[in-house]
Fold:
Amino acid sequence: MMTVVIIVAVVLVAACAVAFLYARQSGGQGMRRRFGPEYDRTVTRHDGDTKAAERELQERLERHGSLRERPLTSEARELYAERWTRIEAGFVDAPQQAVAEADALLAALARDLGFPDGEDFGEQSAALSVHHAEHVNGYRRVHAARQGDGGTEDMREALLEARGLFDVLVSNGTDRPARRHTHHAEGSGKA
Structure:
């Protein structure tokens, strides 16, 4: 009987050790899956040091993982959509101003959803990266363009990429963009 108990104990210890080693080896894969392009960006920022990058991403998860986005009212969604449409329309005449307005709008939208205040861009973008890793880079690009990094084409591309984050945020995380606000010509007979 004692031999059976010892064999069972050894098998359990071995199974736990294998599970622990597997979890450690696949931990990076889990982070890579969870954060997507944000994982690669963070590894690059840490000069290829995956352990340091994973530590940073784990800290972000611990700080912001429990954040629950507050839903927007349909009125708020519509107002944000109208503001974004105006920003895009104004880009041709004033690209720097449009990018600055997009940056401010994304900060306000994220704040209204319950993310950290946009006064601390680093903290807000870190929280967004936990919940919207696939889209946060557009916000970073718009923010950098607002600071004067790049020319008009860079600003245009940043604004286009930021639209992905805007759409996800304004749609309450459903990946369905809010209805685009359109203006009809007066007297056109269209409602």
